[in-house]
Amino acid sequence: MTAVDIKALEKRFGKTAALEPVTFSVAEGELFGLIGPDGAGKTTLFRMLATLVLPTGGTATVDGLDVVRDYRELRNRLGYMPGRFALYQDLTVAENLKFFASIFGATIESNYEMIRDIYGQLEPFRDRRAGALSGGMKQKLALSCALIHRPRVLLLDEPTTGVDAVSRLEFWDVLTRLRDSGLTILVSTPYMDEAARCDRVALIQDGHILEINTPTGIEDSYPLPLLSVKSSDRLTAKRALERFPFAYSVYPFGEELHFTDSRAEPSVSEIKTWLHEAGVADAEVTVIRAGIEDVFMHRMPTVEGQTGVA
Amino acid sequence: MRIIAIILRKEFRQIFRNRAMLPILFVLPVIQLLVLSYAATFEVRETPLVVIDQDRSETSRALIARLDASLYFQIGEQTTSMEEAERALLFGEVDMVMTIPSGLERDLGAGQPVIVQVVLDAEDGATAGIVQSYATQIINQVNADISLGPPGIRIAPSHWYNPNLEYTTFMVPGILVLLVTIIGTFLSAMNVVREKEIGTIEQLNVTPIKRYQFVVAKLLPFWIIGMAELGVGLVIAKIVFSVPMVGSLWLVFALAGLYLLVMLGLGLWISTLTDTQQQAMFVAWFLMVIFILLSGLFTPIDSMPRWAQIVTEFNPIAHFIEIMRRILLKGAGFQDVTRQTAALAIQAVLMLTLAVRQYQKRTG
Any CB–CB contact under 8 A between A88 and chain B? Predict the structure, then answer.
């Protein structure tokens, strides 16, 4: 069954489009990721699905309910976690949770198993003010509050932004377990590495959805061979590769360079020789599998730091 | 009802936990009432003056003694030079120069009119007017003492509702209104906009809370606090300032409740128009300053230009100050303040409707 069904949903503010018409659906029990940089339109899409903003075109249903017409009933079935921490910083952990539970006519006790996994870690801090929690703890509390009324669909807008690496991993473990328990989850993130944890992801950029696929499917969609080039002289290597006759693109990727060859069968030794002649002696060149970030870079030729040669 | 109770509990918890809010709620009003009532007085006391006595007679000395004996004047060094007196006036050392012409006693004795010149520093027109009236009073008294002629028309003033012309009797009811106003407008505006500013409104808006539940639960705490502060204020007014409370206190509270609805509606409306507490504060201040200056608290509405008097009809503060003064000082009953009450009722309905319509859980 389809949990979220979006048809040509769009949002314009005057003449500027925050979200161009997008169409996709999310199956029940799916962990669906929206991956894209800041300003791509992720938050606008979430706010429309969360019944907070009216769309200017198209339709969307969540759990079979229209986001515009059935918004009242829908609010009971949605769990929404805004990108910005939106709980009361001057109330304690327990007070926040109790407040949101009782607003929905639920109690912490009756729905405890829903949040046991996450809230268990927060329990020792139950009397601490939410404002005094660490970033990771805040996110866990926010997730608990979004879950306490047993929603059917969970909307998480950049839940891991500003959270340390360990807490991010823990958070995704929790999401995976929630998905396994049958909850449908829509999550957005600017971190490409988190995409691999989703069942399917949509790449979104400038209000457009570029591609929707499984994480592996997206990686497989990279059309050309990708090579990683490691060198102590990254700048010279980058300049040399840009002049390489079969260069398609070169961009820095962490400590390395990612080089795309425009031929189907690139020769590693030929590239090494080219680099050596350009004065890069210690180049290590290996053919690698493209990651989601590479696909993103490929689909967005305007990103800074990338040199589109072709 | 259950939902409203849940939000109310949260609101009170937050209000009493807010270290910036608590002093505003409980200390500020008391200080405001005590300081404003004592300090912002219209009475002018111990005005320094110079007397140029060119007559040096018994009568002129009697006049000077009268001036000196009154609390309103303080006679500095005597001089006979007009230039010196003018310089003292210019440098603000004295506020008044009185010249008693030579031949005062002689002319009075002969039944001739005499002119005593009073030069006033009228930089502050209101003060100059008050000082002049004090001076006139004293001269008239001297006149009466020595006058031998037939009595003319005399005024026998009797100051009703405030027989001793106590300044605080007049001011305290008005300042009480300001106190209630600040709670109603500022705190309600700040409270709602705070949810917007820190983003909590997002989480609240996706819950099934209905609009009216949110509005009632947000405004009710400040309605209750406003009424409680009025109670405290009235106790202080009675004990510290001995303000007469002739009318029904029940009526005062009932109409204060109505008035608070107007101001809470205004506060909520401001909060729907703004995104941060700073913006809300600015808009609230802008409106408050206009409302207060045109309220009749400091300057009588009757002396305002026609357009300002019309504007005052839309000024809830003016209506409530009028209501408070009439009930407390004159013992007015409900039938004596129906016009003001009707104005407040209309404004309450308009303001709350506007604010509730403006407050949207969904944006376009």
Answer: yes
CA–CA dist B273, A288 (Å, integer) = 55
How many residues are recorded in chain B? 364
Domain with CATH 3.30.70.100 in chain A: 226-308
- By Cβ distance, the residue of B3, B200, B208 closest to A72 is B208
Please tell me whether residue B77 adopts helix, strand or coil conformation: coil
For residue A200, the cross-strand partners are A32
CA distance linking residue A257 with residue A255, whole number of Å: 7
Domain with CATH 3.40.50.300 in chain A: 2-220
What would the pLDDT profile of B229-267 be if each residue is shown by its tens digit? 999 999 988 998 888 889 999 999 999 999 999 999 999
Kindly tell me if the per-residue pLDDT of A77 is higher than 80. Answer: yes
List residues bridging with A27 in a β-sheet: A2
What is the C-alpha separation between A296 and A294, in angstroms, rounded?
Answer: 5
Contact A99 B10 (CB under 8 A): yes
Which fold, B47-146? abc type-2 transporter like fold (3.40.1710)
> pLDDT tens for residues A237-262?
888 888 888 888 899 888 899 999 88
The ipTM of this complex is 0.80
What is the CATH architecture assignment of A226-308? Answer: 2-Layer Sandwich (3.30)
| Helix runs in chain A, H state only | 42-49, 71-77, 93-103, 112-122, 135-147, 165-180, 215-220, 234-243, 268-277, 292-299
CATH number at A2-220: 3.40.50.300
State the residue for tokens 């849940």.
B6
Residue B19 in contact with partner chain A when CB distance is under 8 A: no
Map residue B342 onto helix, strand or coil. Answer: helix
